[in-house]
Amino acid sequence: MGITANPPNSDQLEIALIGPGHGECVVVHLGDSQWIVVDSCIDKTTGKPAAIQYLDSIGQRPSEVVRLILVTHWHDDHIRGLAQIVEECPNAKFCMSSAMGAEEFLAVVSAYDVLRFSNCTSGVREIHEVIKLRSNNSATVTHAAPNRLAYKTTASHGLSCEVWTLSPADAQISKFHEEIGGLIPEVGRTMQRCVPQRPNHLATVAWINVGATAILLGSDLEETKDNRTGWSVIVESNERPLGKAEIFKVPHHGSENAHNEDVWTEMLGDKPYSILTPYRRSNLPRPSDIERVLRMSDRSFSTAKVATKRTQKRDAAVSKTLREMGVTIVESEPSLGVIRLRNGGSRDFGSWSVELLDGACHLAEV
Amino acid sequence: MSTASLIPHSVSNHDQDEDLTVPSDPYAADLYTRNIDSEARKFQTRAVNRYVNTSKDGALFSNTQTQDAHVGHMTTNTTNQIKEFDTNPLPDDLAKRITRTPKRVATFFPIQEWDGYVLEVNSRSFRARLVDITNSESKGEEEAEIPLSELDEDSQNLLQEGRLFRWSIGYQKSPSGQKIRVSRIIVRRLPAWQSEDLKAAYSEAAEISQALKWE
Asked: Looking at this predicted complex, what is its ipTM?
């Protein structure tokens, strides 16, 4: 990452969405070098967790400045490198859904950990390491649940900073337990990589308030058309924090199955800054997704372009074989890009500047 | 590992090792190698018998699995119904011939290898994520859509989302010295889950769960 090396001013808010590399990660500056990290991905060129690398690049020491680590769910594209962040930031609060601490889930991650020798890593291996690290530590784990205040602080800008979790709802946790039942390996079945079921029932949505300014981080939460789960239960809740967010991390890479029109009208301000990471494995966002998000807000951005698929240079004999087979091998995901938004600090809390770094682009250019 | 699917992609050249006294004609060379193999196999059987005899107090075994070095790597030979006992030590020169790798064997030299896992299986191809294990400087995973015709039928039947495989492209050298460029995809037959694995997983899960302190 070739990031501008200046950190935000102590009274400035910042949100940086980093991805894909492999996955996505959000870092938020609340003020006075107090940062929160939501999910994790790694920079494939360095192998380092993107959050650690980003903070280092702007002169912030992760071990001192990270106050909260929030894990929204356990899928591979949201937790790579997370164990290193947890290890390097032992004083940060750690927040996840209690469902990820349930014995059934822990049994699944322990069972699949036998495949740790494989070069093909999966989310279970990383989450196994993270939870083991956290269980060995005397620190507590904060429970992510609907309308729960996970972290609160103040800063020299004089405003109260709050991080709320808005999900997963009880019905979602029940569905997650059903999913886990299906993931427990069967005796006699050949070992293989763990394959999470769909849809994603566990994603934790976060709401960040700094004074009257709000940010909504949609994780991968999907819309289920069931008012006990998904986005419907969040929109219809009368216990969630009030206000309308100015910045929206669009859920599930802009996918149609994560779209809920009421979120845009009830929880977001007019033309919010909408930011997302693409996910090539599922071809997201699709052209119809791009069109839909741009219709909701033309201030929409992606951390990378997905149209260009790069290939590596190979030995001539290998290239010849691949040609004969009719196979093209492409990079699985584009390199890391960063969308960085900073506000005007105490003087002008409501104005934001957008920086598109390392291949990030306007959503219309994806 | 399942049966390898060896897909020859072209015959490049027919090279010879000059230090071997093998007939230059490929067919004759092949016969020559087979004779050596046949002779060595006899000695190998005697060696297996002796191992069985000494390690199991002379008990008679059948279906003894032995690694067969003569037909290339990753294949096994089942020695059925070992009936002969030979408790006499083999002469030194013969013992050496058993342990020595024959000079002419089918060998495979990979140029490029990936570890992969299956994302989805379609009617004519499968999509997979690949991790380059040859080039240490290669960063990140890659993705490919591979025709099912690159796999033999057994391997195709094993394909499903999450399945791990090894993909190698390289040169295979036949016993006669012929060099063929091949693509080889081996769907990994990992061990099956055992009830002990799950018991251990539940035991660790209970331990971790109790150690987590929730706020």
From this structure: 0.85
